[in-house]
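Input record (one chain):
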Amino acid sequence: MKDTIWNRRSFIKTTVLGALLLLSSPGFAADAFKENDAPPGRLLLVNARNGETLDVTYRKESGEYDQEALDSINHILRCPHNDEEIKMDIRMIEFLNAVDKELGDGGNEIHIISGYRSPEYNALLRKRSKRVAKHSLHTWGKAVDFRIPGIPAAKIERTAINMELGGVGYYPRKGFVHIDSGSFRYW
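The corresponding structure, as predicted from the sequence alone:
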């Protein structure tokens, strides 16, 4: 098996392929990655509310997605209010993976503050805070709030903004970053 060296060139190549994935069908991923041998998509997630941990490889080097692994990601990112799950947007998952890899070689322990929010839970949060969007991308499975222990949230924010893969929000008082698979913007 060939060793994959994660350097600036392979990161840029993977980022370009990821951008192409954002604009294409899921079948394109396998075709694109076969020729370019990108590193597998792997995440180490910790649900900050209940302590559940998930170490999962959701995309193989060939570019094929593992549906069982994606289902596990959907589960750990479920709504804390009613345990409802939704199919999380693969573009958001890939964005999270790209941020993780840019902040080292991947494998950082990513503490999830908020993943999917049911519309009922989002409405409840809106009653408590004016900062919660009425039509939050969390309710569509397209957003995640997270922190990475040992890495300042400001550094995570700068890294995500520089990628220009979606929305990026920075919450310094709470110490977390929001990313989503919507249009590129930041706050």
